[in-house]
Amino acid sequence: MAASSARYALRWKSGSILNRLPGHYKRHRMDLEKPPSPVHYREEPAIAGHWKKDPETGEKKRVENVPIPLIFPKEADAGIWGGEGIIKGFQKRKPQSQKVPHYWIPVLKQAVVYSEILDKYMTVTVTERTLQLIDEHYGFDKYILETPVQDLKSQLALDLRRKMLLTLVRREMYEDDETKREQIYEKYKNFIIP
């Protein structure tokens, strides 16, 4: 792990070609290298790398934040699962029985979402977590635009993000209502890449 991070740091040094790229592109590439936020486990906060101090004894304990491997089938690209995936593992159904292979699949549902930028209602396959994230971001457009690319994990979400950004840059929304177009542009202009 340390060797790969050292190689990654060397790629962005002053002499490399990657350092000559525009700032917004470098930030985007660095964001893609970050791990996705944890969905199926709780990440323990660690002090100084991989250690934490026990509040009762004061003893240092090792913290291992190992992400659970997820499976994303091709059907996940047709919906927005909010970072959830299929978990493969083993389950013990009775105390004396052997472990049995088991898959935990997220509960999927059809939901109608509204994009303010595209001025369109869409029927999308989502999970309950996706609906909660849309509510936390106060709307579908803000959820798609504010969520990092590595957390979207869906080709549909990435295509919608691209379409929204292009619509904002070209100012193609609400062609018959100029005041509404300016309101939407002012609301989402922070997401436009310079």
From TrEMBL:
Highest taxon of the lineage: Eukaryota
Keywords: Ribonucleoprotein, Ribosomal protein
Listed SUPFAM superfamilies: L28p-like
Entry annotated with the keyword Protease: no
Assigned protein family: Belongs to the bacterial ribosomal protein bL28 family.
The name this protein goes by in its record: Large ribosomal subunit protein bL28m
Biological classification of the source: Eukaryota, Metazoa, Ecdysozoa, Arthropoda, Chelicerata
Gene transcribed to yield this protein: LOC106476558
